[in-house]
Structure formats: structure tokens, C-alpha cells
Amino acid sequence: MSRRFVSQLNHNETVEQVFLASNKQLRPNRQGNLYLQLDLSDRSGTIATRKWNASETDYKSFENGDFVYVDGTVQLFQGNLQLIAQRLRTARPDEVDESDYQTLQSDDVCRMRDRLIGVLRGVKSPALAALVEAYLGDEVFMEKFCRAPAGMKNHHAYQGGLLEHSLNMMEVAALIAPRYPQLNLEKLLLGVLLHDSGKVDELSYDREIAYTDEGQMLGHMCQAISHLEQKAKDAERRGQIAFPPVLLMELKHMILSHHGEYAYGSAKLPMTLEAVALHQLDNLDAKLASMSGLINDCPNTDSRWTQYFPNLDRKLWKGV
Amino acid sequence: MSRRFVSQLNHNETVEQVFLASNKQLRPNRQGNLYLQLDLSDRSGTIATRKWNASETDYKSFENGDFVYVDGTVQLFQGNLQLIAQRLRTARPDEVDESDYQTLQSDDVCRMRDRLIGVLRGVKSPALAALVEAYLGDEVFMEKFCRAPAGMKNHHAYQGGLLEHSLNMMEVAALIAPRYPQLNLEKLLLGVLLHDSGKVDELSYDREIAYTDEGQMLGHMCQAISHLEQKAKDAERRGQIAFPPVLLMELKHMILSHHGEYAYGSAKLPMTLEAVALHQLDNLDAKLASMSGLINDCPNTDSRWTQYFPNLDRKLWKGV
Amino acid sequence: MSRRFVSQLNHNETVEQVFLASNKQLRPNRQGNLYLQLDLSDRSGTIATRKWNASETDYKSFENGDFVYVDGTVQLFQGNLQLIAQRLRTARPDEVDESDYQTLQSDDVCRMRDRLIGVLRGVKSPALAALVEAYLGDEVFMEKFCRAPAGMKNHHAYQGGLLEHSLNMMEVAALIAPRYPQLNLEKLLLGVLLHDSGKVDELSYDREIAYTDEGQMLGHMCQAISHLEQKAKDAERRGQIAFPPVLLMELKHMILSHHGEYAYGSAKLPMTLEAVALHQLDNLDAKLASMSGLINDCPNTDSRWTQYFPNLDRKLWKGV
Amino acid sequence: MSRRFVSQLNHNETVEQVFLASNKQLRPNRQGNLYLQLDLSDRSGTIATRKWNASETDYKSFENGDFVYVDGTVQLFQGNLQLIAQRLRTARPDEVDESDYQTLQSDDVCRMRDRLIGVLRGVKSPALAALVEAYLGDEVFMEKFCRAPAGMKNHHAYQGGLLEHSLNMMEVAALIAPRYPQLNLEKLLLGVLLHDSGKVDELSYDREIAYTDEGQMLGHMCQAISHLEQKAKDAERRGQIAFPPVLLMELKHMILSHHGEYAYGSAKLPMTLEAVALHQLDNLDAKLASMSGLINDCPNTDSRWTQYFPNLDRKLWKGV
Amino acid sequence: MSRRFVSQLNHNETVEQVFLASNKQLRPNRQGNLYLQLDLSDRSGTIATRKWNASETDYKSFENGDFVYVDGTVQLFQGNLQLIAQRLRTARPDEVDESDYQTLQSDDVCRMRDRLIGVLRGVKSPALAALVEAYLGDEVFMEKFCRAPAGMKNHHAYQGGLLEHSLNMMEVAALIAPRYPQLNLEKLLLGVLLHDSGKVDELSYDREIAYTDEGQMLGHMCQAISHLEQKAKDAERRGQIAFPPVLLMELKHMILSHHGEYAYGSAKLPMTLEAVALHQLDNLDAKLASMSGLINDCPNTDSRWTQYFPNLDRKLWKGV
Amino acid sequence: MSRRFVSQLNHNETVEQVFLASNKQLRPNRQGNLYLQLDLSDRSGTIATRKWNASETDYKSFENGDFVYVDGTVQLFQGNLQLIAQRLRTARPDEVDESDYQTLQSDDVCRMRDRLIGVLRGVKSPALAALVEAYLGDEVFMEKFCRAPAGMKNHHAYQGGLLEHSLNMMEVAALIAPRYPQLNLEKLLLGVLLHDSGKVDELSYDREIAYTDEGQMLGHMCQAISHLEQKAKDAERRGQIAFPPVLLMELKHMILSHHGEYAYGSAKLPMTLEAVALHQLDNLDAKLASMSGLINDCPNTDSRWTQYFPNLDRKLWKGV
């Protein structure tokens, strides 16, 4: 029987299949009986899950990040679906098809990585080209960059999301650059690469997505600046050039100002045309991705509207 | 001798040629002597002008919007250039080449108009196509739309600026639409056409740009809604269709929400994907145009920075 | 036995009578058993209600908006009263006295309608008088205007509330006008009529009060402007006059600016004396109505204070 | 020849008559020559005045608050009228008719005072009536209360303005009270009397209006509270009653909360119905007075709009 | 067996000992069964407590503020510990050691009181010294001042907290004063004594901490001003001096401005050096106390971070 | 004749002595005549200066940063003193005593430097001690650190100001640390050293104080982080230790969060106790220094109040 993805589940449906587990907790209810609470995911989404009358043995029978085989029933609770599990055990390897649990498939990631490299290799000015090679030639960085999400929640919050978001922005930048000849496209492309590059360390994303201590305390902008300083030195070695200090300053400025306003945690306001463009393209891609996501994930099929989102101060229209 | 454009003038330069006059005022100085103050423009910009020891006869010798022949000297005053006029008279017709005074040449405007029509005629869904024809077929509207500025100041603040801004946004929308398949490009194109269409009545722009009484009191959003209601009826007549009420509502919503936030005078927050995209594309085009303009118009050639702009809370970097 | 109104119910009281049902939902509890949750109302207020161990049959046995006969017990839960229903069925017509379920009785509404018509018929300037007749003569509009609430919650959130709020404001305006001779009372009276007139379409209020799709997406200001444009044309026909465009503009401006500040969704700031007065009178009537309501509805008889209201950032003093 | 009031002066008009002087300063111009700058007022308004080539003798020939006889010419300078004085001397007593310099005539003030006393004597509850007598019986307070302005600028900024503003609010309160039976009119009337009573000490207003040191540092709310505590004790003596502590607290609360929001310097948010009503009535009277004033004082007769007022973020419409 | 303090309790631990009870409520669960909910405290903290299947007899068996003997079990529930009580009765006097329930011991309070008196008796300028004696000589005030908390929550929210906070600020002021010779230390010390002195009446703190009606409606600033006016008169009697009005004004100003910004409820902005210093020292002591408290009270020993605090918009770092 | 310092100059006083020149500009007045505008300073302050009827030769006769000999007259203009220069030439070396032009004397700076080194050498934990030596041992850094101002304006805006501000904060930190045992004083001292250390590059201050390009575009926080990364590597070499990464992270966090709130350009909110303390101590020292400065520099001796400062939204009280 073929898999039912999380996004396909309905009220009252019975489920017997494998999910990825996270956020497990053993908790007493008000009568003092213990129950197990966890999240189960596949590539289409996540469903809150409870197993009543659980024991410490149940709790220890698997780890966050494990694949578990569940049988249970889906219920609508306070406007959201939840899964009431009857049984729950670690899955056997032959029961798992990893591609079911990745929003982006390895093939997709490879293709996007190749496209990103293609775009960046088109950069011709010597200093920027040397800088591109310093980043592309750092295998540890590239492996993380292709695996990292673009955020904790909101938009592109899945493995590979950072790559997808950055590639989108680069390709949009390249498309519209001919219409804005005052922009230096090559600086802008580097700005796109750099702007969220600190997220490879701001977040941890091997099993579940979380802030690292450094990420929480310093933020991805500070981390991206440190990377860039090292990479600029690499570029000098590789390219046998002196990296122009004004160019380095402009690149750092794009990192520091890409949130656009102090209130959104921007350390500086955009003061160059490329910094302005970077902020706008980031906004465009992020807002469209996050709002599409909210509309697509809306479980309520009775209404033309999503629920109200307090952080957006609005409902979204799903249409007729 | 060929013309020196406003953007080419330097401190201490002598000037003898024709400009377009506006904002004239006759004012006493602190000693009680009268002087004439006015703005002189050509297609490259505007220069503040004073004629000392002026009389009421001088004041009445020409009207705002006239072409005047000036001889005088350029001076730097408080960081800006001004022109001290010795003599000043209405120009003879043979002294005037109108194309010197239009930011956009009639040819440019024609070409942009044709491109705009081309893009809009690509809309295929019946109701929207009928609506397009209702707008394109309204010659009074089209003539104004091609002549109106996009604003009082900030960006595209010249005759033809509304057309240029709208066309830019449409062509950028068409370029990036394939990357965002969740967007309905045809709705978005209509949204672009409509979003600032009220500016044809919000502003007066025959001689100089100003708010109309209606523009000041009601704003271009309210005016665009009124247009749209009439045009939707036209479309019903022309297309012999019933214009779908939900579609009309979505188009109105794009108009009402395109400023994005209440603080910027948006009557509604964007609640559809096309409304979100419209707001982002408007921001992108407007911000790039206005900041490029500020950098290009900066008269101070000694510094890598423009002056400080209080409304932006920053200086802009002009580069090395 | 005479009816116990919602506002009279106490902890531990037994209830056997008819209410108006709304917001019904069938939900599983944490043990997976289903229960029915709904709101029961009469003219004095609303009480949250639960029926444990409910079935899909229970859920389908009545519709939102139906009158239902309930027997159950009142309990205090987390500071609010709730009703635990034992049995619940649709009421027989002979068990229902509709006047028990209307905040305003039909008589009240009729009287208020007559007073409103009386005030408006006192308007003498020809164009405004013709406009008054255009509104009063539109029976569909008047029927809705007399039935609509003034809002979703806060103040006058019941059928007839819009009429009550508008009439209050008109009569207060007439009372104070002699003290402010700079005000044009007739313009102000029309402003009062128009300012919330869009609520007849912004909200749906046949059974329960909710936003319509148009209301959510466009808002009552936009809808009131559309009405006004049609009515001004009617007035021209009726009065055989040309409706003065400046007057029409001033009326539209009152609609667009009556929320007073951008942050409260006002599309314009009040720029005429009548618009300023309209905003202030709206505030006065709405704030007094909403705060009185909060004080009267406070269920906690032990304290001189109401609970803390987060949207007001305060408790209210009920007094000794 | 009859007097030309400030509000009647036009560009280029010659003036020879008496004004009230204030704000005099002796200043060098850029050439190092001294000029005298001052404000000249009568009951209709104030005009900025300059006398070129002035000496220290000129400066010392009169005091702020003196009546001076001026001959000079009116000029339009940067959108406002100013007076260029040729000669300037202290006026002889027989040249002065004091009523020309008082916005409110002594007769007006007396009549308003009588009406205020009449309204307050209508208060019947014993404690409040005793408090009324404590205020009315304090001749020093009453003399100041009838002479104080209601503010430095904005609204009722002239001698007697506090009385006028308070009386307006009381009479409006009495008019509308029957429509809001939940309000205690007597408490509200006392709230009106008290709310700005601290202004008798916050401002000095014998010759020109200014903040006192205490006014600047403590504000009129703090000062009104101190008054009230003394007056409540007086009331106890006079009325041979114990002033109810809860009532005293409610009156203090009205003083502390009448600005309505923290951002406007309110020490507390209104928490009683009377405090809410007081804030709304204060707003209504103050806003109508200040905006009417701005429209009436607008010197520019060419435009339907006033100038732009930065603190209001708008122009005002004067109408056709 | 020695006592286990609240701060020492762990998940699954059994407890049999005495606590201080507060906030008791009898509530039905969703099945209609009653349970008892209360808070149990000792000097180290407070733990939420529930007794299932409780009766009205249980509820009435003790009062808030009584010592109760409990046996039960500690459980982790939604990230916080709670106590599930099996049995619960009033404690016998011999079971209670009052010092276990006071954050500050009577000895601590006495020592702090002595230090405070020592610092204040160091004030030498006659008027201020007389004022100090007026406060120190008021036994009712001093008794309350030494027993009051500094706030409802946040910092120093326990009996004696006001004394501790004020003493801290005075001693820090004395330490740093030599580095800021522009400050008048004696004025500043009085400012510290006065700034929160109104809290002796703003809060009630005999059994549990709450706002008094006056505190809620008038606030501690208004109350401190009233105290000060009386005490200044006392000082005049005691010291046989006229208290200098400017000095009294400066002291009142320190009270009114110590919150520093309007948004934090400050009635005035600090305008004297001592008022600025007072605001800064208050902030320093309060912020360090409150953040240390949040870090120390964090029950989650698995993480280097505390939970997220919405009012601070951040997590706090507990370190490695 | 002994020098008259800028702070001693009065209206109408004649001046013949040497000043430090800056901000020179040659500008036409409205009659087209040129004048020279510049600032003249000594260690006590700066006075705006004009020389009428200047020529390009005058303009070129000295450079910004030169010492010039001036004879002229002091005048009060629009509330501030200005100097009208008759003659102006570069000063001869024998006319200049450099100590007259330095707010802080070399001796002061040396003494403060020694005290700073003394405080920092008291740091004992190995990693921090090694870091201290890395900074103290960098002569280029130390020379700049002792010469840099702490800001462009506001507080400590003179050469040596950064040293003075940092030393103040360290000594205050050491004084109060015993009262806050939860603070790690050694971390806090390093935080003080680091927090504004980026200002050595953010500003240029050889002749006049200005932002560097990097300072404007990246800010002192970003620059301080880069320094710290290098110095931590130095410390590893010097101390033959591995610098603990968590400690490095905490130091960076103090830099990034010391402005306390996003609205003040803080990249992070303070999340450690030392970061909270650093922010508070910075505020305390900066606010006291800047407000004392504003009070001391107030030229108006007639009033107990300074002028109104728009950025502070208040006047300051100078006292009686």
C-alpha cells in the first residue's frame, strides 16, 4: 500500500506507517498518568502525536531523529489534526525510504547546487571571481550550505532551503539586472551568496532545526562576516591578488544591512544600490515562499480563508 | 553653442539660455527690497533661481510653465547650486526645443506605451482581457496615464513617470513569474496597471506637479477604485460577460493593500499572493529608482557620500 | 416558570430552557472521546457550553442559528461560567419567544428608525436633502441598516447596533452643534449616516455576526464609498440637481478619515472640521458603550475591578 | 481712524497704531548691524516684527508686556506676514483701549464665570457640593482660574482660555449626560473643573504666557492633585463631613488619566467611565478649537488649503 | 528530617512538610469533578499545587496565608514542576519555623534598616537632614517601608524587597559619587529614598502581594508626592526651618521622572542631573536583580538557556 | 596677556589670539559676495566664525587643522555666540601652546592610560589575562585607543574621550562589583575594554572628528569583533593556550549587545548578566557626561533652563 503523506491525512483516518520522530516528551496528565508526546514528520509536513498510558520504556525505545513505525488514528483537535498512536516502535531499515522524509530530494539539491555554481562561475571581475572560488572550493562550507535551512520557521525551513532561497534570489537578480543598469550584478550575486551564509553555523540541522549557542548569541550576520574575512584572505592566496578593501567593505555592508531596518535586527541601513536591491530581493522571495506555504498548509478545507496569523496580523485568502 | 543642461552646471559658471519656469514668487528681503525667486528646469533637473532687485513688472512678465530666457551665474549656496539671474524674459518660440525639457521624449513615451499595450494584450482570461480593453480603449485615461508622473517627489516624479514605473513592474513581473508558479501572472499584471492608476487624478501635471484637491483629500487608492468600478461595467458591455464579483474584489484588494503596511497609508494588509507580489515589486522598482536618483543628483563631487537624507535616516554611498 | 437570562445565571444553577445556538463543534478529548462544544445565547449574553460523550448524531441534530432546548448545569471554569449540558434538542416553535433573543426589541428598532429618519429629514440644503432621500428611499439598504451590528465585538455588536450607534451620534451632534458654530451640522449628520454605512455589507448578521469576504478584503470604508457614488447619482435623478463635486468629495473624505489615525486603519487623516468632529463623536459614543459593556458583563462579583483586558492594557473600576 | 486688527492686515499695508509687545530681542545681522525683533499683538492675533538699524536705546525703551505705538509696513515673508517698523515708542495711556488686546473681554469673562458657577452650584451630592464650594470660595484660585490660558499654544492659548475651555466641556457634558445614563454627571463636572486646574500654576500669564519652573518640572497634573488635597480638607471643614476616600481617589484618577494615553503624558489610563468621558470631551473641545483656529488664522487667501502643519502631519481644508 | 526547599524539589520526589498557602481555588474539571488548586511557597520559591477530587470541605479547611502540612508528589508538567497533593491540612504551630518562609530573615531586615539609617543620617545640609528625620521618625512609615516589596513581580518582589532595593541604590550611589562630582549626592540619596516610597501604599503585602485600589488607580508616584508634602511640613516643624520650595520641587521631580520615559509611565522626563542618575541607578539595580532571579529560578537543568521570556523578547544564557 | 578661552567669551568682546581651525567653507551671500565660514576651537569649546568679504586667497591661506591667529568681535546670533573675524592668518609656532587646544592634557592621558593598564593587569584568569596582554601589547592599537574620542558628538567627543569613558566604566565596575556577586568582574572589565574599541577605526580624529568610510558603512561593533578575533589568536600564541570558544562567544556578545535595544542599533539584546551590566554602566556614564556637558556649555546666563534639545525632547534644569 502506498504511503499517505502528512499533508494527505484526514480526520478519523487510520495510519500504519513510518515517520521521522522529534521533540519527544514524557508527561503526566492531570490524573497523574504518563503519556508520550512527540512530533512525527515526513517531507510533506509534521503532525503532533500523543500516545496515552505510556511508560519510561516507551520513552526510551527511540531517539529524536529516529524513524519510527506507528499505528494510530488521526483526530481534529482545536482546529489542528493530531495523531493518537496505539503502538510505536523504531522502524526496520527496509521499512524506510529516506526520500519520503526530505522536502528536497538529493537530486533536486544536486541540480540546484550545479545551477548555483553555474551562476557564480559567471562572475568575471578578478577579485570577486577569486572570492567565489574561495567559497566554492571549501567543501565543508559547501556541504553545509547545501544542507542548511534558510530559517527556523517562516520560509524555506527545511534542509536545502538555504540553497533554494539563495539560488532563487540569484536567478531573479540575473533576470532583472538588465532592467536596472545602475546595479552591479556581480556584487549583487556575491551579496546573495553571503547574506545568509552565516546560517550554516547559526542553525544546527542534522536531525532537527535549532539555533546553535553561537547562533543565538551572535546571529548569522556576525558569523557571515567572520567567514568572509577568512575567504577574502583565501581569495588573495588563490588569486594572487590584493583584495580591494573598499570592495570588501561593500560586501560586509550588504551582509550587515540586508534586514533593511533596525527594527528587524539590521545592524545598518542599506546605503549602496546593491544593498538596497539585496534587501528587496530577499523580501520578495521570502514573503512569497512563506505566504504560499501558509496557504498550502492550511488544514481547514471548509473556508476560503486561512486561520488568523498573529505575527502577520491577518488571515490569508485561499480563493474560491 | 550647444545647451548646458542643469545637471552639467558648475559653481561660477555663466549661463545664457532657455529654461522652463515654475514656483515664481516676489518676496521682500530683510532690508525690504524685493527679489524674484523661481525654479528653472530642463529635462536633466531643476535649479533654484533668484533675481535680486526685482519689481512687480518682472514678476508679471511671465507665467509659471512658460519658457524663459535667462542670463546669470551659478553659485554654490549651502551645499546646493543656485542661479543668480541678471536678466530674465520670456523666450521666443524659435529659441525653444521642447525635447530639452522633457525627461522622457515623446518617442520614449510612445515606445513605452506600445510595450505596455503589448504586455497587457497578452492577458487571455476573458474577464481580465475585457477589462484590459476597457482601460486601453479609454483614450482620455490612456492619454493621462502616459503623461502622469508616478509621484510628487521620490521616484519617477516627471511626466511619463507613471507609465515608466508601471511598465517596469509589468516586465519584471513577466520575467520572474515562471519562478513563482503559485502566482497568477494575469491578475498580477492587472494589479500593476491599477495600483497607481488613481494618480492620473490624484496629481495635476500639466505645467507643474501638484496634488489636486481630490488627490489630497481622497488619495489615489480611492480614485483607482472608482475608475475600476466603471471599467468593470464597460468590460461587461464590451465582453458581453458578467464580470466575476470575486475577481473584482481581488483586484480592488490589490489597489487597497499595495502600500503594504497601515503606517504607510495602506487601507488593508496584502492577503492574497498577488497582492503580496504587487507590494514587493512596487517597492523594488520605486526604491531602486529613488536611490539611484539621489546618488546621480548629488552635486557634491568631493565626497564618496551623498548628503544625509532625513527621511531615509542615512547618507548614500556613491563609491570610489 | 419564567426564563433565567444568561446574565442571571450562577455557579451550580440548573437550567432547563431554550437558547440560540452558534459555533457548534464536535471534538475529541484527550482520551479520544467526542464532546460537543457550542455557544448558547439570549438577549442578555452568551455562555460557552459543552456536552460530554456526544456523537455525530448529536452534532447533526441542529444547525447554528437554531433555537435549542437544553437541560444542564452552570459551572465556574477558569473565571468564566460555562454550561454543562445533559440533554439538548431543537426547540418547538411554541417554546420560543423571539424577543428573548434580541438585544434590541423590534419596537426599539422601529422607534430608533423613526427618530433617525426624523433627524435626517431636518436636513434642508437641497443636495444633502436629496442624498438623504436617496438613502432613506432605498428599502433594501434601510432594512439592512436597521438590522446590522456596529461591529464584530467591542461596541454595539448586536443586531440593530449600527442604527443605535448612528442615531446616538446624530442626536449628540445636534445637541452640541449650537456650541460649535464653526461646524456645518448638516454635513456632519450626513457624515454620521455614511461613516459606518459600509458595515451593512462588511458584516453578515443573519444568524451570527461574521465578516463577509468583501468585508475582510476591502473593509467598510471602501464599501461605503461605492454606495455613496450610487446614491449621489440617485440624488441627482431624484432632486433634478447636479450634486456638487466638492461636497461629494467632502463626504467621501469623512468616510475615509473617520478612524482618525493611520495606525487605526484610517486611509486619510481628518482635514475638515466636520471630519474632525465625526471622528471625535464616533470615539466618544463607541468608547462609552464598549467600556460600560465590559463593566456590566463582568461576572466576578467579589472584586471592585473587572479582569485585565489586554487590548485596553488595563482593568476597569466597577466602584464600591 | 478705527483700528486695523492684526487679523485684518494685508501685504504692503501701512500701520500706525498701538500693539502689545512681547519677546523682544536685539540681534546683529550678518553684516554686524543690530536690529530689533519682537512680537506685536492685539486680541485678533500676533505679528512678527522687525526694526532694522536698532540700538540698545531702542531695545531698552520699552518692556515686554508694554503697549507700544508703531509705524511701519506689512510684508509677506516666507508665507507669513511680518511688520517692518520704522518707529516704535511706548504708548501714552490715552492711546490705549485695553479691550483691543484681550481675546476675551472682561464682560465675556464675567458672563462665563457666572455660567460656570451656575453649573457647579447645580451639584447636589453633599461631598461634591462641599468641594465645589471650597474651590468657588477660594478667591485667589478663582481669579487665576478666570485669567489663565488653557495652554501655551494649540487651543485656548489666551487669558480666559482655561475658563472658556472648562465651561464648554461642562455645558457639553450636561447636554449629553441624559443620553449616557451610566455616567455620573456630578463626578464628571468635578472632573472637568479639576482636570486642567493645575494650569493656574503651571503657566505664568500676567504679561506673556510661559511655563513656570514648577510647571515645567512637575506638570499641571501633579499641581492639580496638590490643590485637590487641600480643597478636600477645606470641604471637610466647610461641610462638616468626612470626604469619602474612594470619591477622592476617583477624582484624583480623573486628573491623572485625562490625557488618555501614556504617550501623551498621561500618568494613568482611564479606568472609570467618568475618566473615559472626561478624556473624550477634552479631546473634542480642544481639537475643534485648535483646528478652527488654524483655519481662521491662515493668511494665505489664494488657496483652499492651509499650509502643512508638521505636528498634525497634514494640511487643513478651508473649503471653497 | 531536614526541610526540602521548593528550589530543591525534583521530578518524582515525594514531599511531606509545611508550606505557606495562597491563591486557593476550587474548580470543576471537564468531567465535572472538583479539584483544589493553590500555590505553596517557602522562602526559596513557589510551586503550583493541585489536589484532585477535592470537596468544599477541603476548600474551607484553611485560608490563604495559612501554613499547611502537605503530603504529595512532584511532577514536571509543561516545563514547570507542580505538586500533586494527596493530603493537606493546617499545620500545628510546633511544625512551623517562620524563618523558612521569609526571603529575608528578620535579622537581615534589621541590619539593612540600620545601614539605611546610617547612610541617611550622613546627610548634612539642614533642610534635607530635617526631611530625613521626618521620614525616619515616622514609625508607621518605617515599619511599612521595611516590610514592603519593591514590586508585584520582576525584581525584589518579596517582603523587605523595597528596603533591599533602596539600600542597594544608596550604597552604590555613595560609592560612585566621588567619580561624578557634578552630582549632589545628598539630593540623590533623598531621591532614592523617595522614588519608590509610594509603594508602601501602592501594594498590600500582609499575606500576599497585590495592588491596593489606590495603587491601581493612582500609582506609587502620586502617593509618594503626597507623603513628601506632609513630610516637608514635618521637617519645617522639626527643623524650625522654611523648606526651600525649589528643593522641594527638585525632589518631587525626581519622583515623577524616575521611570525615565513616557512609555514606561514616567510623568516627566528627567531634567536634572540627579534625576538622570536616579533613573540610571534604579535601572541598574532592578535589571541585575530581575535577570539574576530569572536565571537562578530556571528549573530546566538540561539546557544552557532559560526559556524564552516574552516581555524581554529573549532567552537568557546560563552558561556552561 | 593671558588667553581667553572659548567658554569665557561674551557678547561684544574683542578677540586677538590663536585657535584651531576646522570646517572652513567659502560661500556667496545672497548678494553674491563671498564670505568665509569656519569653526574655531580650543580645549574649552568651539565657536562658529565668519569673515565677511573674503576671497579665494583667504580660503587657501590655511588648512583645516591649522592653528590660525584671529582678530575679531564676538556677537550673540540666534541664541548662540559667533565670532566675526576682521583678520585671520596662520599662526607662528611660537604663538601656539598646544596644551590650550586639547581637552585632555598629555599628562591626563598618560595618567588615565596607566590607571587603565593597572585595572586590566588585575585580571587573573589565564585566558582573559592573555587577551589583555594582546591588546596592551599592540602599540598601534593603544596609541589610537588613547587618542580616539568616544563619539562624534553627545559624550566624550574629544581626543582621549574613549580612554576616559572606558576607564570611568572600569573603575565604576570595580567599585560596585562586590555588591553584585553574581557578576564576573573580569569578564565585565574585558567587555568594557572591547565595547567601544571599534571606535579607533570607526572615527578619524587626527585633525577633526569624522566617520571613516568603514565606520559609516560597518559601524564600530563589526570592527571591534574583527579586532577581537585577531587578538584572541594573539592571546593563544602569547599565552600558549587554546582560547575557550564559549568565552570568546560571550565577549563578542557583549560587543554586539551593548546598545541594549534594536532601536538603538543593537545587533542583539543582552542575554548574559555581564552584557546587561555593561549596557547599564555605559548608559550611566554616557548620560551623566552628556547632560553635564549640555548644562555646562549653555551660553544663556539669564535663565535657569537650558534651551530645548529636540533629540532629548526636553530642556535641562541648571538650578538657581
From TrEMBL, chains A, B, C, D, E, F:
GO molecular function, one term: nucleic acid binding
Enzyme Commission code: 3.1.-.-
PROSITE patterns: HD (PS51831)
Annotated TM spans: none
Entry keywords, A to Z: Hydrolase
Stored PANTHER family: 3'-5' EXORIBONUCLEASE YHAM
Protein name: 3'-5' exoribonuclease YhaM
Source organism of this protein record: Botrimarina hoheduenensis
